[in-house]
Amino acid sequence: MTPNAPQITFGPAPLSIESVIALAERRAEPALDTDPQWRARIDRGAAIVDGLLDREGQIYGITTGYGDSCVTTIPLSQVEALPRQLYTFHGCGLGRYLEPEAARAVLAARLQSLCQGVSGVRFALLERLQACLQEDLLPRIPEEGSVGASGDLTPLSYVAAMLCGEREVIWRGEVRTAADAHAELGWEPLTLRPKEPLALMNGTAVMTALACQAFSRAEYLLELATRVTALNMAALRGNSNHFEARLFAAKPHPGQARVAAWLREDLQTELEAPQQRLQDRYSLRCAPHVLGVLADSLGWLRGFIEIELNSANDNPLIDPDTGDVMHGGHFYGGHIAFAMDSLKTLTANVADLLDRQLALLVDTRYNHGLPSNLSGAPTERAMINHGFKAVQIGASAWAAEALKGTMPASVFSRSTECHNQDKVSMGTIAARDALRVLELTEQVAAAALLAGLQGVHLRGDPLPAPLAEMVDTLREDFAPVVEDRALDGELRLCLDRIRTRHWALYE
Fold this sequence. Notes:
mainly alpha; Fumarase C, Chain A, domain 2; 2 domains; three-stranded antiparallel beta sheet; 19 helices; 9 strands
């Protein structure tokens, strides 16, 4: 945990994407709201469930089987055994395991949903989830196995099982059994009450957590891609008049105009070099129009994600004021699915843009006098040096894979679970896809950034202040390429800098 970390409070007030990311990155401490009325409301919902059981009321997933088995009545003698059955038979996830940052985001998303007070769980369950975040006890969650309705059943079963002292966890940086970790913490594993496994599992916490991560990375990528474009404009002696304010007042998409303003800030100065063309090629001239689509989409993407984050998205819901049991379908992750399918396309277009800029930089037909492949070798060694030739090939491969990954997942609904779940969202697959496309696009951005850095070094023109400061910072890690060298280590370092938002870019 970061020393003197700020506190993020779970309760009736909404959380932001930034709060989830701060918790995921251990830059903030979790706390539960101390309002006694809110706490009493949580426990009142759990008491209503107990009261319904005493009256032998019929409640889905409590006194009935799950899914299409809702027509099967569970005798009261078996009600206490049913919760363990739910998380046990859903223990079939495969694929890679979520990284610790993602697992923390999952716990935060599930906790915030239960804090809405209509899930019929004990306050003690919220306390244990908060304690897991505080102590960094993390479920080991396989990525694959959710169709996004009824929520993220299979991956979230690993949260429920962990709370009960079962399966594997990440504890103090190691894979351990949940039972061992509980013993070291001095915790008694929970025995889930009848509504609690559904409340934990029958929701959208995994897709929402991954969507928060994807949004945060995309937001930074937008600024980085703008700065890379400015650097490449300087290296290619592009025409900064393409970004004039009057032009963008005539087509006033606000995000697009913001990108153009950032480029003006980076490029319009008395040090500007002569332009090589009246009209630059589209990957330079239309950069605000490409990046602007992402910029203008961030607002509604945030809305979709944060509403889902701050929603009750399990089933059934319990009204703690009236005692009504409301059966519905809030576990359906359609908004997250659409947001993430859209983000894939928005992000892949950034990869394509930067890949095209890099292709201009290395090609003597289009780079206005820079050496072939941006080689910095002296004349006597130029014939055996190849500079950024292979980096450009790699960037093309990463961009192609990013573009390939834009196939929407949300249209691939499959009828599952004996045709009870006959229309599903695929939101978790869409979110995982979005993160993969972002990963590939960040790789393209790293390549384009290092190539742009090489380009301005070779050009030798004085740079405007914002770019000069960026170059000075970059030079602390990345030396000019004079003689060919393997650049994979530097690309990986650059990626690490991107993923930790190392460079402050625009206000």
